[in-house]
Amino acid sequence: MKTDTQKPNAYRWAVMLAFMAVVAINQLLWITYAPVTSDAAKYYNVSTLSIGLLSMSFMIVYILVSIPASWVIDRYGIRIAVGIGAVLTGVFGLMRGLAGSNYSLALFAQIMIAVGQPFILNAITSVAARWFAPDERATASGLGSLSIYLGILVGMLVTPLLALRFGISQMLLIYGILSLLPILTFFIFVKERPANAAVSTEPEVRSLMFDGLRETFKNRNFLLLLAIFFVGLGAFNAVTTWIEDLLKPRGFTITQAGVTGGMMIIGGIIGAVVMPTLSDRKHKRVPFILASILGATLGLAGVTYAASYFMLLASAFVLGFFLLSAGPIGFQFGAEITRPVPEGTSNGLLLLMGQISGILFIFGMELLKSPETGSMTASLNVLLGLMVVVLLLCTRLKEPASV
């Protein structure tokens, strides 16, 4: 095997920043309606469940598009695949902003933005593998995940402020114009791979995609990881979608709901930097996944039962710090335990599980909502029980031979 003594290519940071911009704006457009569900329902003259469908469309579409998107990533590379996602995000983000109060047109635009999502998110570990050395890849995956949380954070914190100041229509138009910018930065700065960096000298032996799919489902470690993502990512998707409805029955305002969601994402941003970096330095994955799920379970318990606003914010921070830091470590762990399966395939399967469970959890939480008070405490208790099960599954994971 050829060795390379060159330092990693410094241009990798420009590629990562351009990629992060695309991820962030796509996720901002996903979460737009969550903190303003009631106002959006009035604007479009539809039910709150119809507004929830605007968010759920991302999960439904992901199930259909994830595997084809992973194939495009593995076959044609990150520049073409993520470029497709960037164009869909920008063009239909603007269309949604121009749709006015036409719900059908807004839903169509949202679906097309959702089609772009797997072309972007499934490439997180592929970008890390193309541009970063092995001992930086959990960190690089963490940065990719960090951009998810940054997009959601802006959506949670800024959307209510823009909606109150300018109205729903102008808020959507502002986001539509902003969604065009990452298209330019992506195609200007992103190349497929470095020309002479140390990370480019690794063997390019790869399984064909469908051979890779078969191999992953024979891997006990990866099957456990799929179950962990099913619950963890599904819980995150459900809580962020219903954040206002979760808190309103306890007397918290729309602004407080937005800040609570924002605090969860702030915790996730910090966690996505701290935990993967520690994982790379310690050359361990499993202990950090286990610690993340334990901390997330405690945070979710706090969000479920917190009576004061201070305790709610503190619990949301803990939940975000640990639950969202588990993602990038899990992505990299999945890539390591399934080699030579392409990174886009393992990454896509993990995200796919979270989208499937997100749909189930979102509808389930709506069904379990108290008809008298609107409380979702019962559904949160179910999520807590599932998190405890996942915590037990984490103890069965085995560390890969080398990290």
Overall description:
The chain is mostly helical and 403 residues long. It has one domain (12-200, 207-394): MFS general substrate transporter like domains (Growth Hormone, Chain: A, Up-down Bundle). It has helices at residues 12-31, 37-44, 48-76, 78-98, 103-121, 124-131, 137-166, 168-178, 181-189, 209-216, 220-241, 243-247, 254-282, 286-305, 309-337, 343-367, 377-394. The longest helix has 30 residues, at 137-166. The model is unreliable at 1-6 and 198-208 (pLDDT under 50).
The amount of beta strand, in percent, is under 5%
> CATH H level: which superfamily?
MFS general substrate transporter like domains
Report helical residue fraction.
over 70%
- What class do helices, strands and sheet pairing give? mainly alpha
Main beta sheet strand tally, sense and closure: none
Q: Which ranges are low-confidence, i.e. pLDDT below 50, for 5 or more consecutive residues?
A: 1-6, 198-208
Structural domain tally: 1
Give the C-level CATH assignment.
Mainly Alpha
Order of helices and strands: HHHHHHHHHHHHHHHHH
Let me know the number of strands: 0
Distance between the termini: 18 Å
Mean residue pLDDT? 86
Shape: globular
CATH architectural designation: Up-down Bundle
Rg from C-alpha positions? 20 Å
